[in-house]
Amino acid sequence: MRPSVIMATVFGMCLMFIASAGRAESPEELRAFMQVKLQHSQKLLEGLVLEDLDRVAKHAQQLAMLSQESAWRVFQTEDYVQYSLEFRRAAHAIVAAAKEKNLDGATLAYMDVTMKCIKCHKYVRGIRMAGVDGKAALGPRLSLRSEVKP
């Protein structure tokens, strides 16, 4: 990866962090953040299908970096922290396999990341439905279906 691309990515992530520091995300900001996650996931899958392991590594790394953002931390429960840690490890496994030019390993790690996403989203929906810590309504339920074109 080119140093200028790395620097631009790091700079952009820093700006996102500074912009979001010290305040809770609005439903619109959270929805936009979720769209960024989805776009990186789609690009990662595209890289696997095209056997473009540089693209795979790039987007897996972006997902791992996003998981460090404040917008990612919807809850501060032990389970949620564990889900996030497992997601990061799986994303790093994709990066490692891609750098080793191991398409099958990267594909398996992608499947693991996908399962971790689904489990965590299921957990978050359950927490929101239960209203844990008096936060029954953490904003409108997000639906990506209406925003993603087939």
Could you characterize what this model shows?
This protein is mostly helical. The protein has a single domain (about 5-135), classed as Four Helix Bundle (Hemerythrin (Met), subunit A) (Up-down Bundle), CATH 1.20.120.10. Helices cover about 70% and strands about 0% of the residues. The chain contains 5 helices and no strands. α2 runs antiparallel to α3, α3 runs antiparallel to α4 (about 80-100) and α4 (about 80-100) runs antiparallel to α5. It starts with a helix and ends in a 20-residue tail after the last helix.
In short:
This protein has helices at residues 3-20, 27-50, 53-66, 78-99, 103-130. The chain has 150 residues and is mainly alpha-helical. Residues 10-24 and 133-150 have low confidence and may be disordered.
Structural class: mainly alpha
What Rg, in angstroms, do the CA atoms define? 16 Å
* Helix content bin: over 70%
The span between the termini is: 30 Å
Q: What does the largest sheet look like? A: none
Order of helical and strand elements: HHHHH
Please state roughly what percent of the residues sit in beta strands, choosing from under 5%, 5-15%, 15-25%, 25-35%, 35-45% or over 45%.
Answer: under 5%
CATH homology superfamily name? Cytochrome c/b562
Oligomerization state of this entry? Answer: single chain
CATH class: Mainly Alpha
